Amino acid sequence: MRKFLPKNFPWHFPKKGKEKRGKKDIIVCPECNAFYWYKSWHHSLEDYSELKEDKEIRFELCPACKMIKEGKFEGEVILENCPEDKEELLQFINNFAQEEQRRDPLARVVSVEEIAKGMVRITFTENQIAKKFAKRLKKTFKTKNRIIFSKKEKIIRIFCKFP
Ligand SMILES: [Zn+2]
């Protein structure tokens, strides 16, 4: 379902957590064109005038694209009793995905799939994003939400039932 997700947004954000990479390394994500330099990910290499040409560039997937490629996720939302016509719902998901990626390029929708009749499963790179999505869904579609936390992992699963 990557087709729902736009590739290029003008983003720049500070990298979370510890990073062992050197200040001078440049890493370019071949999937979304994000590049990593001086402890943060930036949107497009061409826009970056400070960058000198003598720097070493490596190609490596950004953490979000890596998760998407490996099918890994931290948050899962299961939609139940979905309307037959899913156009509005898909538009809603698409808008949410774009907005989140613009805010933080690692905040992504990993997959969207119909797992049974009236049931759609959406996975996210971060559980906070799944929570935010479910909350927004409740507000827009009046869904009944129930969150299930996993004791072993940090993955959460949220069931959202349409009225
Ligand atoms: Zn990427």
List keywords for this structure.
163 residues, alpha+beta, 3 helices, 25% helix, elongated, disordered N terminus, binds zinc ion
Describe this structure in words.
The chain has 3 helices and 10 strands. It folds into 2 domains: 2-63, no CATH class; 69-161, Alpha-Beta Plaits. A 5-stranded mixed β-sheet has the order 1-4-3-2-5, with no helix packed on it. A 5-stranded mixed β-sheet has the order 7-8-6-10-9. It is 25% helix and 29% strand. It is an alpha+beta fold and 163 residues long. It has helices spanning 63-70, 87-103, 127-141; strands at residues 12-14, 26-28, 35-37, 40-42, 57-59, 75-80, 109-116, 119-124, 144-149, 156-161. It binds zinc ion. Zinc ion binds next to helix 1.
